[in-house]
Write a structure and sequence with these properties.
By secondary structure, this protein is an alpha+beta fold. It has one domain. The chain is 37% helix and 13% strand. The model has no long low-confidence stretch (mean pLDDT 90).
């Protein structure tokens, strides 16, 4: 009599266990990736506001207090990123940009402030005191 081919119960249980382990590792990484891409989208939508602040700072000799409201930088209303819980705010006297993400992005707070680097080049730095986005989701040097 010929034996019928197939998988034993042990072999099937091992395959299911391997799939479970892979899923346990892959799902959190995928969720971080999705959250990171949403933050990247929100932050890139702030490029026009950042540019307006940079131009205002150039015109006002780097005086942060002269560029800390929407009208001072040429914005009648603050933008609202796609995955934000509300609109963007400019912090008084620092010209830092801040907003809170929606639940889909973990409700973290984004905060970046303009800093003058070498050669008076303006770069946006993570505001350590108020920014709560984990560095695993969005690196500090990409603000």
């Amino acid at each position: 009599m010929k034996r019928q081919g197939g998988f034993t119960l042990i072999e099937l249980m091992i395959v299911v266990a391997i799939i479970g382990i892979l899923a346990a590792v892959a799902i959190p990484k995928y969720q971080d990736y999705v959250t990171s891409s949403k933050w990247a989208s929100d932050i890139s939508s702030l490029d026009s506001l950042k540019l307006a602040i940079e131009l205002c700072l150039q015109e006002n000799g780097g005086d942060l207090a002269s560029c800390d409201t929407g009208p001072e930088v040429g914005f009648s209303g603050m933008p609202t990123p796609s995955y934000a819980a509300g609109s963007v705010a400019i912090v008084a006297n620092t010209a830092a940009i801040t907003f809170t993400g929606s639940i889909a992005t973990g409700s973290f707070v984004y905060a970046a402030e303009p800093q003058f680097g070498p050669g008076a080049v303006l770069v946006w730095q993570r505001s350590v005191a108020t920014d709560t986005i984990p560095l695993t989701i969005f690196p500090a040097d990409q603000r």
